[in-house]
Amino acid sequence: MAASLDAIAGRAPERMGGVSRVLLTLLPLAAVLYGLIPVLFAGQPYWLNVMTNGAVLSFASLGVWLTFAIGRVNIAQGAFALLGGYVTALLSTLYGVSFWLCLPASALVAALVGAAIGWPLLRLRGIYFAMVTLSLTEAMRLAFLNAPGLGGGGILNIPRPAGLDTPLAFYLFAATLLLAGYLLVWRLATSRIGWVFRSMRQNEELALSIGIDVARYRVVAFAICSAMGGVAGGCFASLQQNIYPASYTVSDSINFMLYCFLGGLDFVLGPIVGTFGLVIAFELLRSIQEYQALLYGILMIVVMLFLPNGVISLFPLLVRRFGRGAS
Amino acid sequence: MTLLSVEGLTRRFGGLVAVNDVSFTVSEGEILSVIGPNGAGKSTLFKLIGSFLPPSAGRVLFEGAVVSGLKPNQVARKGIVRTFQETTVFKEMTALQNVVVAHQLGVTASPLGTFFSSAAARADERRFRDSAAEILDYLGLGHVKDVEARNLPHGYLRALGIAIALAARPRLLLLDEPFAGMNPEETDRAVAMVEGIRKRGVTVLLVEHDMRAVMRISDRIVVISFGSKIAEGSPEAVRADPAVVEAYLGKDDETIGH
Amino acid sequence: MEQILVNGTILAANYALIALGITLIFSIMNVLNFAHGQMFMLGGLIVYYVCVVLHLPYALALIAAVVIVGLIGMLFEDVFFQRVMRISNREENTMLLAVGTSLLLENAALSLFGEKQRAIPPIVSGVYRIGNAFLPASRALVLVLSLVLIAAVLVFVNYTKTGRAMRALAQDRTATLLMGVDAKRISTLGFGLGAALAGVAGGLLISISGVNAGIGTAISTKAFIMIMIGGAGVISGSLLGAVVLGFAEAIGYALIPGSVTYLLIFVALIVFLLFRPQGIMGKPAA
Amino acid sequence: MVNASRRSVLKGAGALALATTLSTPSIVRAQEKALRIGQLGVMSGPEASWGLVNKYSALATAEMWNDKGGYEIGGTKYKIEIVSVDDRNDPKLTVSGAERLTGSENIRYFIGPNTDTTATSVRPIAEKNNAIYFPYAFARSLYTKPAENAILGMIASYQVAPIMYQQLKEQRGVKTIGFVARNDSDGLLQRDEGVKVAQTLGLEIVSSSDTYEPTITDFFPVMSNLVSLAPDLIVLSSAAPAHAPQMMRVARELGFQGLFACEAAQDIKIINEVAGEYGDGLISIGGASTPEIRSPYMEEFIARYTKVAGEWNDEAGTKAYALEILLATLAAAGPEAIDDIAPFKAAIDGFSMKNPFLKEESQLTYVGTGDFGQKRQIGVPMVITETKGGAFTTFAISSVAS
Amino acid sequence: MRYFEARGLTVDYDRVTAIKDISIGFDEGQIVALIGANGAGKTTTLRAITALSRLKAGEIWFEGEQIDRHAPAALVERGIAMVPEGRRVFPHMSIRDNLLMGAYTRKDKAGVARDLERILARFPRLEERFRQSAGTLSGGEQEMLVVGRALMAKPRLLLLDEPSLGLAPMVVRDIANLIVEINRDEGVSVILVEQNSRMALRISQYAYVLETGRIGLEGASADLLHNDHVKALYLGG
Question: What one-character DSSP code corresponds to residue B41?
Answer without folding.
Answer: S
